[in-house]
Amino acid sequence: MKLLKKFSQAAILATTFGLSGAAMADEINLDTLLKTLEQGQVAQTAENKAREAEFVTKRNEQDAALRKLTSDRNSQLARSERLETSFEENEIKLQNLSDTLSKRMGTLKELFGVLQQVSGDASNKFQTSVVSAEISGRSAFMDEMAAKMGSSSKLASIEDIEKVWFELQREMTEQGKVSRYNAEVIVAGGEKVNKEVLRVGAFNLIADGKYLTFNPVTNTISELTRQPVARYQTSAADLQAANSGVVDFALDPTGGSILGLLVQAPNTEEQVHQGGSVGYVILATGVIALLIALERFISLMLMSAKIRRQLKDTTPREDNPLGRVMKVKEQYPDVAYDTLELKLSEAILREMPKITRNLTLIKIISVVAPLLGLLGTVTGMINTFQAITLFGTGDPKLMAGGISQALVTTVLGLVVAIPTVFLYTLLNTRSRNLLLILQEQSAGIIAERSEKGA
Questions:
Q1: What is the pLDDT of residues 283-340, one digit of tens each?
Q2: In terms of C-beta density within 10 A (0-12 exposed, 13-18 middle, 19 or more buried), how is residue 263 classed?
Q3: Three-state SS sequence of the chain
Q4: Sign of the dihedral defined by the CA atoms of residues 359, 362, 363, 364, in that order
Q5: How far apart are CA 183 and CA 99, in angstroms?
Q6: What are 267-283's pLDDT values in tens digits?
Q7: Cα separation of 258 and 248, whole Å?
Q8: Phi, psi angles (nearest 5°) of residue 92
Q9: How many other C-beta atoms lie within 10 A of the C-beta of residue 173?
Q10: CB neighbours of 304 closer than 8 A, spacing ≥ 6?
């Protein structure tokens, strides 16, 4: 590059010289230019030699590094061949030792396989067993045994086998015991309270007459947020209070599954609420019918007592229907018996509304209640079909509301109608009996007046 630069400068000078003509000839010395070019060529030659020497040095270094890497590669290949040969030899030895171990183990191999299976099954059983609420740590040992048996390099000792047998036997023994112990119980408010817990075998846990549940994940005991019906709680309280003897108690052989389903079943109040607005209307009509029937029953009972007293007395009284009917005879002492008969019939007709008051309303309610139940059934089925239209039939819980309303309203309608019919029949019979007494006494009065007229 420097040489090219010099030539460029010389060309520029020559061009300048050519253009300037004779004016520039005196200023430039050709010998000086030649000398300058010669010096530049010498310097360029020295620089090229230095670069060639540097290149040769680096090439020699790279050749040395290549020879070293080649030597290392060859040594590693040789080592790899030796290791591969050693691996194959060790693999053959290991296979021979494994065959020898299998032959020497014989039936012990089957024993360890069964022991591994039993340990795994027992671990799952112990995790969910309520016995673990009192006796902890059993599942961890069974998991360790199952892992040990799964590894071909580890064998179970006699002590391990005996401990597995002991834990299985202890589980069976504890299933037949009723044990008392103190433990932390999570109550409804979320607070932990130390209570006396009664464990009934491997089936149930109770405390203070309430059923408990055991959570194997957190290893905690808590009260059921919703307890079963009162008869089950009563039996639990009786069992906890007893010290000996036989006590009736409902066991859950599934370890809590049946109890969990039992507490989810709606009680009577919740079933009534499932009926919705139609159910409330049915209950309201039933209450009205009951109040009317109660009022009619009391009124007819008092009226019947007064009429019985009037039957024993010949003097008419104004406080009862029979007395008011008998008083007609005194009001018309001289009329003919046929006229008296009409006056008595008129008096009986005046008393009839007081005796049969509101009985027709009770009868209407006994007829309307099933119709209201049918209305609720139709409404519930409409809701059910709407849910099916929107969400399909994949989730039955979406249809449960409409089906519950459909069934509950029918039940409520029948529950109101059936006793209302009985009440109407009873009250109607009582009122008819009272009217028959009035008609009987009226017929006697007419016969007596007819005999006098004859």
A1: 999 999 999 999 999 999 999 888 888 888 878 888 888 888 888 888 887 777 788 8
A2: middle
A3: CHHHHHHHHHHHHHHHHHHHCHHHHCCCCHHHHHHHHHHHHHHHHHHHHHHHHHHHHHHHHHHHHHHHHHHHHHHHHHHHHHHHHHHHHHHHHHHHHHHHHHHHHCCHHHHHHHHHHHHHHHHHHHHHCHHHHCCCCHHHHHHHHHHHHHCCCCCCCHHHHHHHHHHHHHHHHHCCCEEEEEEEEECCCCCEEEEEEEEECCCEEEECCEEEEEECCCCEEEECCCCCCHHHHHHHHHHHHCCCCCCCCCCCCCCCHHHHHHHHCCCHHHHHHHCHHHHHHHHHHHHHHHHHHHHHHHHHHHHHHHHHHHHCCCCCCCCCHHHHHHHHHHHCCCCCHHHHHHHHHHHHHHHHHHHCCCHHHHHHHHHHHHHHHHHHHHHHHHHHHHHHHHHCCCCCHHHHHHHHHHHHHHHHHHHHHHHHHHHHHHHHHHHHHHHHHHHHHHHHHHHHHHHHHC
A4: positive
A5: 53
A6: 777 777 777 788 889 99
A7: 18
A8: -65, -40
A9: 10
A10: 430, 433, 434
How many whole angstroms separate alpha carbon 337 and alpha carbon 345?
Answer: 12
Question: 47-74, pLDDT tens digit by residue?
Answer: 888 888 888 888 888 988 998 999 899 9
CA distance 198 to 182: 9
